[in-house]
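Before the break, one more example. Copy the sequence into your notebook; we will annotate it together after we see the structure.
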Amino acid sequence: MMPNFFDIHAHVNDARFDEDRNEVLARMRETGTSAIMVGTDYKSSQDCVAMAGPSESGVYATIGVHPIDDRDEKFSEELFAELAESPRVVAIGECGLDYSRLVDVPDIEAEKERQRELFETQIDFALAQNLPLMLHVRDSDKKLADAHRDVLDILKTKKNMAACPPLPIAQRDQSGDGRRGERLRGNVHFFSQTIDIAREYFFLGFTISFTGVITFSHEYDEVVRLAPLDKIMSETDCPYVTPIPYRGKRNEPIYVEEIVKKIAEIRSEDFETVRAILVQNALRVFNI
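Here is what the structure looks like once it is written out:
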């Protein structure tokens, strides 16, 4: 059954849902809201995959290692490959670069290199698994766009390196002619940059998604308005950034409806049209 709404980035595995997780999932089913539960390390990735079992219709999972949630966390390809065997795993991440807390580390360049290596390992893993990436990118300063610039440089290099040679015929699928460069794709979650940066991601075949921030801040109105509708998606990033009119409450996936409403309002477009296209975007990007 086609969902009414799609929250492409949620953390219902978070401890803040421990007391009423089943009720949250029930509300999702009642409202026809699908969601992707996002892993940030091996343990949370396991939890997300378990939550996305066949009994929970409309729940999917990503698996990966966040750049800074635990700086000691490694990416074990062997362990994550076992998780990737689940048909409910639809992306790798959230992974990427986060320069927002560099003041906390004694050696900034060493920390950037650690994050880069962790990110590149997960890009290669996503290519091998033919899965999209769920990107987490935070700049040290929005005007610098330093993390986004570094992520874009890495993606461009990976795309060029992967463009040739083609995959063996036996490994090709309907996503393209088998070239690994065409398999490099994904979404930039909680997009927080300009339309110019967004267009660079679009050129590489990536999409961007917006959270409840757009319901109480006008900072990203231009990006929401100017981005092609088939290149954007909606997310809650729950339990964080609860949208209006639920500010002050814990966020949850069913509140993604308010974000879809705001996207339609900012774009001056029909709500039903926007709703349907955003759902289709999620199904397409995550091959659901």
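The first strand starts at residue 5 and ends at 10. The chain has ten helices and eight strands. Try to locate both features in your own notes.
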